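About this split. The held-out portion is used to measure sequence recovery: a designer receives only the structure tokens and must propose an amino acid at every position. Recovery is the fraction of positions where the proposal matches the reference. Here is one held-out target exactly as it appears in the evaluation file.
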């Protein structure tokens, strides 16, 4: 059996959740499965298993995928044999798609039902994990949540050893507060605008893709003069985009002293065509 590389696609916002066509980002994620008809399971936990959200998922994916969903707040737990063995069902998927909503409530419900451990196993087995908003924040060591009240730091599942901030362009206060939290000791990490996806292979960022021409992702980290923000150029996907993305460069495995130096520098960014540091902006010049 071929060993699959663990992959996570973290969306700043977008996909079928908010985009009318719901096409480019979702198609990108599906293409990573290398399956003619991928098995895709939706976890709408962060929305309280909202019916309209589940319906939209099936409308988007049922024609091209073997679809199912998991409900933790309804007596009917889901479809496709989910109630027989929830862990086995999730581990058999090609893609697990996590919806947006309240990340704090979602993580609590997952822990209560043991889904946090199951999702870690699924990731290690090579099941692709993805999602927008709360479905992005959950995979990281730390994240900035602003679902209720003032922005707050949240500890995620820790599959990715960075911090994360979503809706970066849509909600200016998140940008300001993310800089404040990183400056106060939150892990260095990545922020993404709506319509942008951060694609990680294992724990390294391998690509940034966008369904919008004006959207970007950013690396945010402490610097000598305060918090430093570096824009990452996103490869355009969808209508009008190049026919294919540039290939990833051969992976290089760091060992010994090199790995230690990388840990000291913070999160590593692979310069793979779609991930190119473009400019740096001092935190004080960002405004609200």
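Reference sequence for scoring:
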């Amino acid at each position: 059996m071929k060993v699959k590389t663990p992959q996570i696609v973290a969306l700043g916002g977008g996909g079928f959740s908010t985009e009318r066509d719901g096409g480019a980002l979702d198609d990108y994620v599906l293409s990573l499965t290398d399956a003619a008809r991928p098995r895709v399971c939706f976890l709408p936990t962060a929305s309280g298993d909202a019916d309209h959200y589940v319906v939209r998922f099936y409308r988007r994916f049922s024609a091209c995928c073997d679809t199912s969903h998991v409900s933790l707040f309804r007596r009917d737990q889901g479809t496709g044999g989910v109630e027989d063995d929830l862990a086995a069902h999730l581990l058999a998927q090609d893609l697990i798609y996590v919806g947006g909503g309240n990340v704090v409530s979602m993580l609590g419900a997952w822990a209560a039902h043991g889904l946090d451990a199951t999702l870690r196993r699924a990731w290690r087995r090579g099941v692709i994990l993805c999602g927008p908003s709360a479905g992005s924040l959950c995979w990281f060591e730390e994240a900035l949540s602003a679902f209720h009240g003032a922005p707050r730091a949240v500890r995620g599942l820790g599959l990715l050893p960075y911090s994360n901030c979503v809706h970066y362009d849509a909600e200016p206060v998140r940008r300001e507060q993310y800089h404040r939290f990183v400056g106060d000791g939150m892990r260095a990490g990545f922020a993404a605008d709506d319509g942008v996806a951060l694609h990680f292979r294992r724990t390294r960022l391998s690509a940034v893709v966008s369904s919008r021409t004006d959207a970007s992702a950013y690396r945010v980290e402490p610097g000598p003069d305060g918090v430093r923000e570096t824009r990452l150029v996103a490869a355009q996907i969808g209508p009008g985009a190049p026919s294919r993305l540039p290939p990833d460069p051969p992976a290089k495995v760091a060992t010994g002293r090199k790995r230690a130096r990388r840990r000291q520098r913070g999160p590593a960014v692979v310069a793979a065509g779609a991930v190119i540091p473009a400019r740096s902006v001092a935190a004080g010049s960002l405004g609200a």
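Annotator remark: Helices lie at 24-31, 51-61, 86-91, 103-113, 115-125, 134-137, 172-183, 256-265.
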